Amino acid sequence: MIRQTALAALAAVSLSAAAQAQTLRIGLREDPDILDPTLARTFVGRIVFASLCDKLFDINEKLEIIPQLATGYRWEDPKTLLITLREGVKFHDGEPMDAEAVRYSLNRHLTLQGSFRRGEINTMDAVEVVDPKTVRIRLKEPSSPFLSQLTDRAGMIVSPKAAEAAGRNFGTKPVCAGPYRFVERVAQDRIVVERFPGYWNAQAIHIPRITYQPIPDNTVRLANLQSGALEMVQTIEPDDIKTVQRNPKLKVVAYDGLGYQSITLNLANGPRAAGPFAKDARVRAAFELAIDRDAINQVVYEGAWTVTAQPVPPSSPYHVKEFKPQPRDLDTAKALLKQAGATLPVQLEMTIPNSPDLRQVGEVIQAMVKEAGFELKLSAMEFASSLQAANRGEFETYLIGWSGRVDPDGNTWTFIHSNGAQNDGKYSNPEVDKLLDAARVEQDVAKRRALYAEVWQIALRQDRSRIYLWHAKNIVAHTAKLTGFQPVPDGLIRPQGLKLQ
Amino acid sequence: MGIWLLKRLGQVLPTLLILSLLIFGLQQLMPGDPALILAGEERGDPQVLAQIRAELRLDQPLPQQYLAWLGRVLVGDFGYSWRIREPVGALILAKLPVTFQLASMAFLIAVLIGVPAGIVSAVRRDTAVDWAANGIALAGISTPNFWLGIMLILLFSVQLGWLPPSGYVPLTEDPWQSLATTIMPAFVLGNAIAGVLMRHTRAAMLTALSQDYVRTARAKGLAERVVVVKHALRNALIPVVTLGTIEFGRLLAGAVLTEQIFTIPGFGKLIVDAVFNRDYPVVQGVVLATALIFVSLSLVADLLYMAVNPRLRTA
C-alpha cells in the first residue's frame, strides 16, 4: 500500500515535469561526437547541427539544392562559383554573417588541423570576398559534387570571432547562425539548445527548446516515446513499425534514405584474393545470382527496405531505374560455376560487423548460396576491427553499408575508382575510372546519369566487382502532437516548421 | 594503527603503477586502429589518417606514448577525450556522483533484502521459508540484468506510466525525479546482489549457529533473538562484509549492461562507449579511477573488520 502510494507520487512528479515548458525531446541512436562542423564526423551529430548551424545551401525532399544562408549561385565558368548571401543574418553572438565570415569558415574547413571537411572541399583553390554580400570560390578543376558539399557540414558558417577565441575547443560551445543556440551538453546524457530570437527565418521556428538524448538501446528508446518521455525518436527498427502504427498517440514516417548496404568483394587486395572467386567474374556472378534480395528484406527487415543493385538510391535523380536486381536464378548460377571449372563447394568467407540484424542477413545469404555450391563461412567481427581488417585486405567478402551522400559521386568514386581510398577490394578497370572521372565534371543531369548507367553495366554486371543489396529507409517516429516534420532523404530532423500542440 | 595505514598506502602505489602499465599494454592488443575509427566515414583520406596519428602521438614508439601519458597523469592531467574533446578528469568527476548514487541505492536494496533473508533462512533451516528464500535468491542471481531491466521498463513506464523509462536526473537538481530515474536500475542491480548476499549470510550464519559459544549462550537461557543477533550474526558478518565491499566495488566500477539499458550516464556507459570508439585516454583514465576506488574499498573493508571483530584491532 505504502509502496503504491509512493509510486503514484513519483508518477505525479514525473508527469508534472513533462508538462512544463515546451521542449521537444528527441531520442538519438548514439551520443554525437564533437559539435564543431569542421571536426565532426557522426551522423547523429548532423541531426544536432540541423538546429545549431545553418548552411550556405540545403536540400529538399527531391534532393534539389535550395538556398539557406546563400540566396543564390552562378557558375561564372566551370571552375568559378559566385555565391550571393542573405542580408541581415546574425550569429548567436550577435556578429554579422557576411562574406568575410564565409571566407573564414570555408578556409577553416579546408585548413584546420584534423578537419574532416578537407576531403569534401579540397577541389577549392581560393575564396574571395567580392563585396560583403558576395563571395567567389575558385576551384582547381571543374567539380559537379562541389555545390552539394555546401549543403552539409562543409557549408556551415561559424562565427569567426567565437571560432578564433575558442580554437580547437569551439565544439564545446559552438556559435553559428542556426535557429537554435547551444545551451549545455552533458556527455552521454543530453544536448540542450534554445530558440535564437535573432534567427533570420524566426517565423519558421515554433518550439522554444530542443533536448537531444542519446539512447542506444532500440527497445528503451521506443519505450521512452511510448511513455511520453520523448516526443520524437531519430530511428526505430523495422520490426517496431507495426507497434507504433497501432498506437493512436504516435506516428511513424518511413521514407527513402541516401545510403546502401553492400557486399565488398576482395578482388586484388593481398593474399586473400587468390581464389577462383577473386579471379573469375563468373564465380562472382553465380554468387550474386544465388542471392534473393527480396527474401532477405522480408525475413530480416519485414520488407521495409528497398532492394537494389546500384549504389545510388531511388530518391536521387541519378538513380538508374532500368538497372534492376537480377532475380534469383540457381540454374544459371550452377551453370556459371561449371563453366568456370570451380571445385565445388567453393570455399568463401564473409566478414560481418557484429549486429543482430546483419548476422541474420549473413545466415540467410549463407543458406541461399549453399544451394548454388558455395560453402560460406561467416565471421562476425566488432565494427572497428572489421574496418581495419577490410582496409588491410584481411577479408574475402565484407557486408558493409554506407550512410550515403547527396551527390552520386559520394556513393561511388571512392569505392569503385582504382584510386578510391575506400576501394578495399582493389577493383580496377581503366574504362570505369574514365567514366567516373567524366561523371565528376558533367553538369547535365541526364548526361551524368547516362555515365553512371555505363559504370553500373561494366563494373557491376560485367565485372561483378561489388554486390549492392538494399537502400535502407529512415524510420522516424514521433508523438501525434508533433506536426510539420519534413522527410528529406538525408534523414536529418529540420526544426523549421515543427510544431508541438 | 597509523603505521598500519601508512604501510597499506605504501602498497597501493606500486599496485596502481603496475595496473596502469597493464591497461596500456592491453589496449594495444585491441584490434582496430583508433585513427580509422576516429576518422569515421572520412577514413578514406590518408592525409586525415596521418594527421590524426600525429596529433594523438600514435606514430610514436609505445614506451614513449606510455611515459608521456604517465607523466601527465602524475600531475593530474588525464588528457582529453579524442571523441568529444572534453578533459577526461572532468568526465570522470561528472560520472562519479551518478555511479555512486546508483551503486549506493543498489547496495542498500541488496543489503535490505539479502541479509535478513539469509538470517531467516539459516534460523529456519530446511523449512518452507528456507526453501522459498533459496529459490528466490537463485532466481535473483540467474535473471539477466538486461532482461529484467527491459521488463521493468515495459511494465512501469510503458504500461503503467509510473516511472520515467530511462535517463538520469541529479539528486541536487530534483531529488524526487532523481529517485524516480534510478529506482528501477538500482533494483535490477540490487536484486542480483541480494541473492549472493543471502546465500553467503545463510552459510555464515549456519556455521556460527553450530559453534560452541552459541550453544553456551542458549544454555545460559538467553532469548533466541539475542542469541541470533548478538552472538551468531556478529561473528557471521565478517565474510559478508568482505563480500559486500567487493560487490560495492563492482557496482562502482560501473554496471555496464544496466547503465546501457537505462541510459544512465555513469562509469559503465562511459567506458563501454570509450572502448567501442577506441577513445584510449578515456579508457585509461576510467580504469585507473576504478582501480583507485577498488583499492580504497579494500582498505575500508579492513577497517570494517576491525569494527566487527575486536580481536583484529590489536594486530
Automatic annotation (TrEMBL), chain A:
A family per Pfam: SBP_bac_5
Solute-binding protein family domain mapped to chain residues: 64-422
Gene3D superfamilies listed in its UniProt record: Dipeptide-binding Protein, Domain 1, Dipeptide-binding Protein, Domain 3, Periplasmic binding protein-like II
Compartments in which it is found: Periplasm
Residues of the signal peptide: 1-21
Entry GO CC: ATP-binding cassette (ABC) transporter complex; outer membrane-bounded periplasmic space
GO BP field: peptide transport
GO molecular function terms attached to this record: peptide transmembrane transporter activity
Keyword vocabulary terms for this entry: Signal
Annotated family: Belongs to the bacterial solute-binding protein 5 family.
Protein name: ABC transporter substrate-binding protein
UniProtKB/TrEMBL annotation, chain B:
Domain (ABC transmembrane type-1): residue spans on this chain: 96-305
Superkingdom field: Bacteria
Location of the protein in the cell: Cell membrane
Keywords from the named record: Cell membrane, Membrane, Transmembrane, Transmembrane helix, Transport
SUPFAM superfamilies for this protein: MetI-like (SSF161098)
Main localization of the protein described in the UniProt heading: membrane
PANTHER family: DIPEPTIDE TRANSPORT SYSTEM PERMEASE PROTEIN DPPB-RELATED
A Pfam short name: BPD_transp_1
Record-linked InterPro entries: BPD_transp_1_N, MetI-like, MetI-like_sf
Protein's UniProt name: ABC transporter permease
GO MF annotation terms: dipeptide transmembrane transporter activity
Segments crossing the lipid bilayer: 12-30, 102-123, 135-156, 176-197, 286-308
Family that this chain belongs to: Belongs to the binding-protein-dependent transport system permease family.
GO terms for cellular component: plasma membrane
